[in-house]
TrEMBL record:
Domain named TonB-dependent receptor-like beta-barrel: residues: 283-659
Coiled coil as UniProt keyword: no
Principal place of residence: membrane
Keywords, comma-separated and alphabetical: Cell outer membrane, Ion transport, Iron, Iron transport, Membrane, Receptor, Signal, TonB box, Transmembrane, Transmembrane beta strand, Transport
Limits of the TonB-dependent receptor plug domain: 45-155
Signal peptide annotation: 1-21
Subcellular location per the Swiss-Prot or TrEMBL entry: Cell outer membrane
Stated family: Belongs to the TonB-dependent receptor family.
Membrane topology: Multi-pass membrane protein
Native source species: Pelomonas baiyunensis
Alphabetized InterPro entries for the sequence: Beta-barrel_TonB (IPR000531), Beta-barrel_TonB_sf (IPR036942), Plug_dom (IPR012910), TonB-dep_rcpt-like (IPR039426), TonB_rcpt_CS (IPR010917)
Pfam families (alphabetical): Plug, TonB_dep_Rec_b-barrel
Protein name per its UniProtKB record: TonB-dependent receptor
Length: 733
């Protein structure tokens, strides 16, 4: 299995020419200017009236060094949380506490992921590996004007390193515990004339390190993976007035789904159960996960007199299958009263997107953008139930869904004076979805609410902001924005009829400041915000049949504060700090959901804290799921230049989040404890920075916490990654 993947990487690395990359030396006495594209233009982060965080360079490389998937970004900027019940596939993003816990393959999320200017709508697409990446930008708050309908919480934006005529590249090899081997490389190909090309590749491998001690286990070892991705880009630029950038990318994942562990939580507490072991489980089912993804895009730009025209065409195809022992135990085991082995796959997926955008290119006080956007997606979901004794598939529920949307938008910037600048935007979106479900097999199929559904939503969204230059070092800003998430629908299943949630709408208000102080050795920014979501879409799981259904809450609110700091204490000592406070609350006095496993009274198992009315836990006043009240992140890099011109450095990074509620209702067992994870890296750079050798540790303290659960009555949970360590060698060409 690994040989084809390594051959792809070898092809990428073999194209690198041994010519040293020549760059102007950096000014080590000041912080570098941070340029972002959060509002579709290249701008200094200080001038953008929005809470934006950027991760790039050393920080991005260090965080990714352990081989973890996109979840390594969680908590690394204020108000960002990422979790998953699928492992390396299907990450769920939350900004300012606002996200979606839905685990089904047609779930929609209020945080949009944009990769190289193309929206990745389906949650499976959002987990593409991060490699040869120029920057990650996290934009908090509604982004409905420039990015579309499903951005009411914000946007996470990934930009790959683009091709150039420089003959440069890099290669990296990492070896770590648990049989970890990470290979990564990129190179600009030696093309001439009007053409440039870049190929990038990554191959990540980890051995199965968790032993399944169940007698005759179908999956004797688990938690390993082989994850390979390749990206090829070609740039054609015959003159300054036109450019065309083509992007082709593929991914092949063969690994383990999230490992569910029966009785992981100690009853009546949120502690790990007595005798819990990270590297030992006991379950009788099959655990496997595969994912194949292919995508591409074409970005055309015409630079005319006073006007830029962009045409961005994108296409994505993904075929995932994730199969697991959901109960996490074996027959007869205490606290495991039933057996469940299921899988979810997707066939025939296809996403097509087209955007045409006009952008002014003048030097006057007025600038603007306008465009149209088209979206077309279709796929079939296969929900599979397996015989828990023979492990043969016995039941299939097929759900076909299509989603077509179009939008037109415009945004205007106007400089009233040198001190005061205004921005305003408006977008209209039309969104339609169709769903139909069929059944094949011997299992149950609940058709009480029908087997077909249709939604048709139209909505205006917009924003208004102002930036005021207080002095040469500080800008103040204020922003109002609204956005919406289109209707969602879910298929009929064995135990529940199909369900639907109408569109949700958000209004957000934010004020903030951005400063560069002490001769640009200190960069400080902060914001205060408040938002209200009307008709919030929620996913409820529970009851005597553990049914899953969509519903709308009348309202949810959030408010808080965020802070970002960069301090160049000396030319060789850089510290960054970020923090956030988020208060979220569901406001619907009549809304109740069944607690997991059974319709029991308060104080029963699990230990429900909410009032019980007619068997339902009343969730009015509860925080949003997976919404920590506090997050803190810290990094520090200390460099020790040597007389030879080489360098030794020490880098440490830490992220803290306070406790979280896993579900809509509150229960003692389903409250995740506060989590603190840190990393340490010691490295040596030589050859004028061309070569680097480093040792690293991730999750230094080996803090293990339950980070999610299954809403069953057997306290099934899953945990964060244990401590990992290794060595890395990187060479620039």
């Amino acid at each position: 299995m690994i040989a084809p993947r390594l051959s792809l990487l070898t092809l990428a690395l073999s194209t690198a020419l041994p010519v040293l990359a020549q760059e102007a030396p950096k000014d080590r006495s000041q912080l570098e200017t941070v340029v972002i594209t959060a509002e579709r233009r290249a701008e200094n982060i200080q001038d953008v009236p929005n809470a934006v965080s950027k991760i790039s360079g050393d920080k991005l490389d260090v965080l990714a060094s352990g081989g973890q998937d996109v979840r390594f970004l969680s908590g690394r900027v204020p108000s960002l949380n990422i979790e998953s019940s699928f492992g390396r596939a299907f990450p769920r993003f939350y900004l300012r506490g606002y996200g979606n816990t839905d685990f089904r393959l047609n779930a929609s999320q209020p945080v949009s992921v944009i990769v190289d200017d193309v929206i990745q709508e389906n949650p499976i697409l959002k987990g593409f590996p991060i490699f040869d990446t120029a920057a990650v930008e996290v934009v908090a708050g509604p982004q409905g004007t420039l990015f579309g309908r499903n951005t009411p919480a914000g946007v996470v934006k990934f930009d790959s390193v683009k091709p150039s005529h420089k003959q440069d590249g890099y290669a990296s090899v990492t070896v770590g515990n648990y049989g970890t081997l990470n290979l990564e490389g990129a190179a600009n190909l030696p093309l001439t004339g009007d053409w440039a090309a870049r190929i990038s590749a990554q191959s990540q491998r980890r051995s199965d390190f968790v032993d399944n001690v169940a007698p005759g286990a179908a999956t004797p070892k688990t938690e390993g993976y082989r994850d390979t991705a390749v990206r090829a880009q070609v740039l054609y630029e015959p003159h300054k007035q036109f450019s065309a950038l083509a992007n082709l990318h593929v991914r092949d994942l063969d690994g383990s789904p999230r490992l569910f562990r029966a009785n992981a939580i100690k009853r009546g507490t949120n502690d790990l159960a007595d005798g819990f072991s990270v590297d030992t489980v006991a379950f009788n089912g099959v655990n496997e996960q595969t994912l194949k993804q292919t995508g591409g895009s074409l970005r055309l730009k015409w630079a005319l007199d006073g006007l830029n025209i962009y045409a961005i065409t994108g296409g994505e195809h993904v075929k995932p299958l994730s199969r697991g022992d959901i109960d996490g135990g074996v027959p007869g085991q205490a606290g495991v009263p039933f057996q469940s082995e299921t899988g979810s796959g997707m066939n025939g997926h296809r996403q097509l997107t087209q955007e045409v955008r006009l952008e002014s290119n003048t030097s006057g006080p007025l600038s603007w953008q306008a465009g149209v956007y088209l979206f077309d997606e279709k796929y079939t979901i296969d929900n599979i139930t397996y015989n828990t004794t023979t492990h043969a598939d016995v039941d299939h529920i097929y759900t076909a869904q299509t989603n077509k949307a179009w939008a037109t938008f415009g945004s205007v910037n106007y400089a009233v004076s040198n001190e005061l600048k205004l921005r305003a935007g408006l977008r209209y979106t039309k969104d339609k979805k169709d769903l139909s479900t069929t059944h094949a097999g011997t299992g149950l199929f609940n058709t009480s609410a029908g087997t077909t559904a249709h939604t048709d939503d139209g909505k205006w969204s917009g924003d208004l902001s102002a930036t005021y230059k207080l002095d040469a070092t500080t800008n103040l800003y204020a922003r109002y924005a609204n956005g919406f998430r289109a209707s969602s629908m879910q298929n009929a299943s064995a135990f529940a009829g199909q369900s639907q949630a109408g569109p949700e709408n958000v209004n957000s208000y934010e004020i903030g400041f951005k400063s560069e102080l002490l001769k640009r050795t200190l960069r400080l920014s902060g914001s205060l915000f408040t938002y209200t979501v009307k008709d919030l879409q929620l996913t409820a799981v529970g009851g005597s049949t553990n049914a899953t259904r969509l519903l709308n809450a009348k309202k949810a609110t959030g408010n808080g504060a965020e802070l970002n700091l960069e301090a160049l204490i000396t030319p060789d000592f850089l510290v960054t700090f970020g923090g956030s406070l988020n208060n979220t609350k569901i406001k619907d006095a009549g809304l109740g959901v069944p607690p997991g496993g059974s319709l029991k009274v308060a104080g029963a198992f699990p230990t429900v804290k909410d009032p019980i009315v007619n068997g339902n836990a009343m969730i009015d006043g509860n925080p949003l799921p997976n919404a920590p009240k506090y997050t803190v992140n810290l990094t520090a890099r200390y460099s020790m230049p040597l007389a030879s011109g080489d360098e030794v450095y020490v880098y440490t990074d830490w992220a803290y989040r306070s406790k979280v509620n896993f579900f809509l209702y509150e229960a003692t067992e389903f409250t995740g404890k506060a989590l603190t994870e840190g990393g340490l890296r010691v490295g040596y750079l030589w050859g004028n920075g061309k070569y680097e050798a480093a040792g690293f540790v991730r999750n230094v303290t080996n803090q293990v916490r339950v980070t999610g659960a299954i809403d069953f009555n057997n306290l099934t949970g899953f945990v964060n990654e244990p401590r990992t360590y290794g060595v890395q060698f990187k060479a620039l060409f």
